[in-house]
Design a protein that fits this description.
- This protein has 216 residues and is of the alpha+beta class.
- The chain has helices at residues 40-54, 61-78, 112-120, 186-200, and strands at 14-17, 25-27, 85-90, 99-107, 133-139, 143-153, 160-170, 175-183, 204-207.
- A seven-stranded antiparallel sheet has the order 2-3-4-8-7-6-5, with helices on both faces.
- The N and C termini lie far apart (41 Å).
Length: 216
């Protein structure tokens, strides 16, 4: 991660704002942003040490290295490439596995209800073990949306994935917003559900002001 993978291209005039508790959430650095962190290992090590300190614990070097290794693994697996995607980790104790939660904002497309149902996986899915639990979900910033919880079969294996998804259409900016997580550890999703719901309420679409300088 010493060189960007591609040039950042702002394809639409909005982005996603997220408010979260830094003691519970850690945002992964995007792959295209190399200015703040010269190396992903530096980011992981620094965050691991700070998180242990925030937990008022004094680990030995092996404790910091253990958490840094986990953070590096998540960054390598989930750090976003597109500008319109952001990924956060729900952090618990320094020795507990984090949970990745992804967000995305993109230009709105198609019929609102049909698009939101597709985004949350509300309709027929050949990998679903049972019909998803789909509910309306409202936030002040994004308005009416949908929330869906599903159990999915992982490929042709007996492993089961728990998937939680939220989606909204923000009419004012013409954007669709998606928040999701999925993991084999179903108990982890249940444990994080309330925090994810609270995080969903912090999402908002930031509309970029057009630059009028020199346009008369």
């Amino acid at each position: 991660m010493t060189e960007p993978l591609f040039e950042v291209d702002l394809e639409h005039p909005f982005s996603l704002d997220i408010g979260c508790d830094p003691l519970r959430w850690l945002e992964l650095p995007p792959r295209w942003d190399t200015e703040e962190w010269p190396d992903i290992s530096v980011w992981a090590g620094t965050c691991a040490e700070l998180f242990w300190r925030a937990y008022r614990s004094d680990p030995d070097d092996s404790g910091i290295a253990f958490l840094a290794g986990r953070l590096k693994h998540f960054a390598e697996a989930f750090a976003p490439e597109p500008f319109d995607t952001r990924v956060l980790l729900r952090m618990w104790e320094p020795t507990t596995m984090p949970l990745q939660v992804c967000t995305m904002v993109r230009p709105a497309e198609g019929d609102c209800e049909a698009t939101l149902r597709t985004l949350v996986g509300a309709d027929d899915d050949p990998d679903a073990l049972e019909p998803p639990v789909v509910e309306p979900f409202h936030t002040d910033a994004l308005g009416e949306g949908l929330r869906a919880f599903r159990y999915l079969r992982y490929d042709d294996t007996p492993e089961v994935i728990a998937a939680l998804r939220y989606a909204w259409r923000h009419e004012k900016s013409g954007a669709d917003v998606l928040l999701w997580t999925a993991t084999h550890d179903t108990a982890q999703v249940i444990r994080a559900a309330q925090d994810i719901e609270e995080l969903a309420h912090t999402l908002s679409v930031a509309v970029w002001e057009s630059d009028s300088e020199g346009n008369g």
